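Follow-up to my earlier ticket, as requested here are the two runs.
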Amino acid sequence: MKKKVVLAYSGGLDTSVILKWLQMEHDFDVIAACIDVGQKDDFEAVAKKALQTGASKVYIADVKEAFVKEFLFEGLMAGAVYEEDYLLGTAFARPLIAKALVEIALKEDAVAIAHGATGKGNDQVRFEAGIKGLAPHLDIIAPWRTWSLKSREDCIDYAAKYHIPLSVTKKDIYSRDENLWHISHEGGELESPWNEHTKAIYKWCTSPDEAPDQSETITIGFNQGVPYSINGEAYDPVSLIETLNQMAGKHGVGIIDIVENRLVGMKSRGVYETPAGTVLYEAHKALEKLVLDRQTMSFKKQIALKYSELTYDGQWFTPLMDALQAFVATTQKNVTGNVKLKLFKGSCQAVASESPYSLYREDYVTFSEDEVYNQYDAHGFINLFTLPIKLKALMEEDLASKNQSEIGNKKDKELSVSTLNLQVYGGEEIAV
């Protein structure tokens, strides 16, 4: 009996070739596993193609709801953004896909899991970290690290040899990853960071310069950090993301073109479209500013940085990630309320927010007369707050007066004031 291997299968160029390669070169019984994280695929057609290519069985696993609730919203509440730009669309999906692959492999009593990630990218680490963390006894097959094919052009030729139908061509050779959260574009002319990407690359978003000339204001409702409504209407998690993708994408919101640092040590350039994610991050950030105190917000930014790095590096199933998520959950207890955002030609701006847990008090911050704040209290506060600064300055004055050698330096500092561009009006003229 042939040994079984579960292949993470998308029906695209790489995994179609890998399926045939596992059969022809290693005589495996290949089980194709299509993990539905929201990519806009015809899964019946994908399954049919896998069987025609040689798979003995095909699994279609719909994990969209788990993707949103257990990964996307967790990252949103953490405020996780990699290198200040990337909303981690691919990175969030990989540990969930790994988990689904492991469950199928255990069900089928397979000896290995195969994936189509290249030896240059991040996904090989993310997939394998998840598999090793959940089922360390399973072997992992990564053809891009071992086979003789060296490029996507080679894969196209291999597919032609075995009559595997493909939608990709040597003219449209972008490597794309799509899920509910985003679609990414890499390769082709994007491999040179000096090449400006063209609007023809967009799949979800209208080009900002072609977006509507009229802005649109929408309201996002949150309950304990989790978004649940748009313009007062409640949505299930998946529908909320899908709806926002359409609303924001129409206005060209969510497009970024970045050079990022891959885990394996090299830089890569990609164009990402993340309409719903961009809106939700902006809304969540605005609401947190309203309800979180200064110290919590400051420390949470440090947590967000580490959280994003762990996610990007595939370290989802780790004790540290569990600990960070526990901290984040505590901070979200009062992140409840509504945020208004204006969408216009590629921009998304929070313009208003409200919450029953708001720490904003108009009676305290008003510039008008109030009865709750004694401004003289600031006198004592400033004296204490600036005491270390004052003590340091006094120490330096004492040293200068005791050490004549420092008198010249002191004069130099005093004379340096004359180098400023000063204009004096009124008073008596003073000779220098």
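Run two:
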Amino acid sequence: MIRDLIENGSIVEIVATIIAFALIVASVLSLFYIIIGGITFILSAGNEEKIKKAVHTVRYSIIGLFVSFLAFFLVAWIARLLEVPFELSFGSILDLMGQLFDSLK
């Protein structure tokens, strides 16, 4: 899919795929840091400094996820406003994510 996109895709399709890939990476990293923060919280054993660090990790990962989705919607809105043929939806992101996970098998 990526090779076909690079060889035959337009610049708008390539940018849309890069944005979709960035959103996937941001989502996976956010989930990873939420899990790390949860494990740190569980293993803190009542240490106030470790609890504070774990809460900050979870909080900032959720804020980062929110900002990445906000940026996605902002880019899609600006593309519609400027009438750029920007075809990117959650369905295409899920398709790209499925293709990426299938290639890892």
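The only thing I checked on run two: Residues 48-81 form the longest helix (34 residues). Let me know what else you need.
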